[in-house]
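[09:14] KT: can someone run the structure on this one? pasting the chain below
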Amino acid sequence: MAEEASSSSAAQEKADMKTAQELADLEKLSAQYEPDVNGPLVGELKSSKILEAEYAGADPVYVRKTAALSPKYSNYRTIRGDGNCGWRALAFGYFELLLRTGDPKVIEKEHDRITSLCSLLDSVGMSEYLYEDFVDETKVLLKTISQSPAIDNPYDDKIIVEAFNKDDVSNAIITHLKLLTSAFMKVYPDAYEPFLVDHPTIDEYRGAQIEPYGVQIDHLGVKALIDALFIPAGLNVEISYLDRSDSDEVNVHKFEDESTPASAEKKADQEQKTLRMLYRPGHYDLIYKNGDLAPPSLPTSPITSPKAAPGLGNVRVSMMLEQEFTHNPFLPSTDPASAVPRVASPDNDLCGQCFPTLRAYRNHEGTLSSMQKLRIETEDEIQPPLQTKMFKNSHYNTRHFQNEHFQPEMWGPEQIGKPKVSKRTFWRKFNP
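[09:31] RB: done, structure tokens below
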């Protein structure tokens, strides 16, 4: 019995060791995330499904959270894990949100505010010749996105991506934001000192965590940068923490201006002005909700200009109200007179071009339908019968809808009282 008990205990211990090893492997796959240190400084947009597949073999907690992430967040953007990913993600998102407003005045106002913040750097003893080059890079990029062609396509971030993938530009902007954050914390120490852990004073914390290049930004630094840069510009930041906490979704922390209560309309507006970051242990990336990116473009009419073809400025459309409009519905117009019913000239008739499938049909008695009144033709008006079926179905036939001279027959009041054609005469037109 003792041997059996000993054998059972050993088996249980072995099983426990195996389970512990499995958990350790899962923890390594999940918690010890190693960001890409060789990729671009700022990557292109990717589908969040890729992120979900990346964690498919990890801890079940991460599997559940990434699976719940993709339905809400359609895309994400990688940031190089060189120790500055948090700073770079915040800096890139700052410019991206400003460009997305599509308003050059908003960006120009922010440009002026950045210039005025140099006085904050001066107030803490920073010399202008030390920071002016870094500030200039920030101002140059703000100026660039406030003008054409960038401002003409506010959802096209190509210019910002190109700028942030240049080492000198990207690092200069990051250094500027580091100096700005450091100065802001020195001017307002009471807002941050209660949260210090490893550093007794704000000055020591600034010297160790904020100003050195290559030191990752922590939660307190994120808060100070947002207070100095984002909140005054009317922008918010939202960080989703992908960790092993006991929940089925990522934990989200939002940094926003809480000084005034927001109405429902303002909340909707602020939602569009929110930078979203994904935090994995030691690393930040950017994520995007379904509505953050460019709205889907609607299909446009092939008629895009009055010069596209002769006479495209006017289109004659028969209405059931027995009026004809010569305004082209495919082209915008500010001329009030264009909306007034007028008589269209034959030269401007484009029914055959704009509405090639518009045909008129008679009922089985040969009389006109109530929806499509046509001019009744007499036997004298009927063209000679077509000789071949091939020609009848060819676009060379002037009665074929693809013929360039095709024109639906229009009914006019003068046709009232004319004799109706017989069935035989009517069908002879269509069956020569």
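[09:33] KT: thanks! Confidence is low (pLDDT under 50) at residues 13-19, 26-30, 298-366, 368-386.
[09:34] RB: yep, looked fine to me
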